[in-house]
């Protein structure tokens, strides 16, 4: 087996709050893993631990054998954050954000070369945003914002992509575009971890799913993880009734 994301017994506290409690998750290369859990279950914290943006109190994370910091600096891993975590007023165009994915390929002066410009243009085309390249990021729709960050990961050449709720506030067209892109990237060998509250879409999108509640309660096929008794563990009874159609 070829493990791309290896989270081993990771514990994270924010002061007195226990956000992750010995969470363990392994995702093999080329797989799409859906991360499911209620609000506050630790999904964003898990992403940040994998990116090396929060330091675990205990446990280890490796990405294709490298530490998170090394993987981040080499551009091997890319993160599509929750919309709330981005300052959309910042004076950056879509093209500027996607070009950030090329920083690891540039020298200290960060002067884009032809290869960088081509990579950005290609990434924008793949996410269908070429015509919006010069727009300020705050002027975009929810789906266009998400696609901008996916394009940054593509331009970067990331082999591991982490997406924190990419379908929240996104219309069906953007959702379909993002799903198709992720599947294409996975079939090209990328490893993808994606959190979502959209349980209905999970079996179509993901090869596997993990149920998080501070720790990984279950990791298996989407069908196994979405069984009512497993959702009851992670969400309580209400969600079971609402998710019956998806099972
Ligand atoms: N910077 C922080 N300082 C203090 N507590 C935090 C901080 N970030 C997260 N937490 C707490 O840690 C726990 C896990 O939060 P996290 O954002 O990882 O959950 P989540 O599953 O991503 O939630 P959501 O689905 O609402 O995005 C929550 O109880 C949250 O309140």
UniProtKB/TrEMBL annotation:
<comment type="similarity">
    <text>Belongs to the ABC transporter superfamily.</text>
</comment>
<feature type="domain" description="ABC transporter">
    <location>
        <begin position="5"/>
        <end position="239"/>
    </location>
</feature>
<dbReference type="InterPro" id="IPR003593">
    <property type="entry name" value="AAA+_ATPase"/>
</dbReference>
<keyword id="KW-0067">ATP-binding</keyword>
<keyword id="KW-0547">Nucleotide-binding</keyword>
<dbReference type="GO" id="GO:0005524">
    <property type="term" value="F:ATP binding"/>
</dbReference>
<protein>
    <submittedName>
        <fullName>ABC transporter</fullName>
    </submittedName>
</protein>
<dbReference type="Pfam" id="PF00005">
    <property type="entry name" value="ABC_tran"/>
</dbReference>
<dbReference type="InterPro" id="IPR003439">
    <property type="entry name" value="ABC_transporter-like_ATP-bd"/>
</dbReference>
<dbReference type="GO" id="GO:0016887">
    <property type="term" value="F:ATP hydrolysis activity"/>
</dbReference>
<keyword id="KW-0813">Transport</keyword>
<dbReference type="InterPro" id="IPR050153">
    <property type="entry name" value="Metal_Ion_Import_ABC"/>
</dbReference>
<dbReference type="InterPro" id="IPR027417">
    <property type="entry name" value="P-loop_NTPase"/>
</dbReference>
């Amino acid at each position: 087996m070829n493990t791309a994301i290896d989270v081993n017994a990771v514990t994270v506290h924010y002061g007195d709050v226990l956000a992750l409690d010995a969470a363990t998750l392994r995702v093999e290369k080329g797989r799409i893993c859906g991360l499911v859990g209620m609000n506050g279950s630790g999904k964003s914290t898990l992403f940040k631990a994998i990116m090396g943006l929060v330091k675990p109190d205990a446990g280890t994370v490796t990405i294709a054998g490298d530490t998170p910091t090394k993987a981040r600096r080499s551009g091997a891993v890319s993160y599509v954050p929750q919309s709330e975590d981005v300052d959309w007023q910042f004076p950056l165009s879509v093209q500027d954000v996607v070009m950030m994915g090329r920083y690891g390929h540039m020298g200290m002066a960060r002067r884009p070369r032809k290869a960088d410009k081509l990579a950005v243009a290609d990434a924008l085309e793949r996410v269908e945003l070429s015509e919006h390249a010069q727009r300020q990021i705050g002027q975009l729709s929810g789906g266009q914002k998400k696609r901008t960050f996916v394009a940054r990961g593509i331009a970067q050449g990331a082999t591991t992509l982490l997406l924190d709720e990419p379908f929240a506030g996104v219309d069906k067209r953007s959702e379909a575009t993002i799903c198709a892109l992720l599947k294409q990237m996975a079939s090209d060998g990328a490893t993808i971890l994606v959190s979502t509250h959209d349980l209905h879409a999970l079996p179509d999108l993901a090869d596997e799913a993990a149920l998080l509640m501070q720790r990984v309660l279950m990791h298996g096929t989407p069908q196994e993880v979405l069984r009512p008794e497993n959702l009851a563990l992670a969400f309580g009874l209400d969600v079971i009734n609402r998710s019956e159609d998806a099972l």
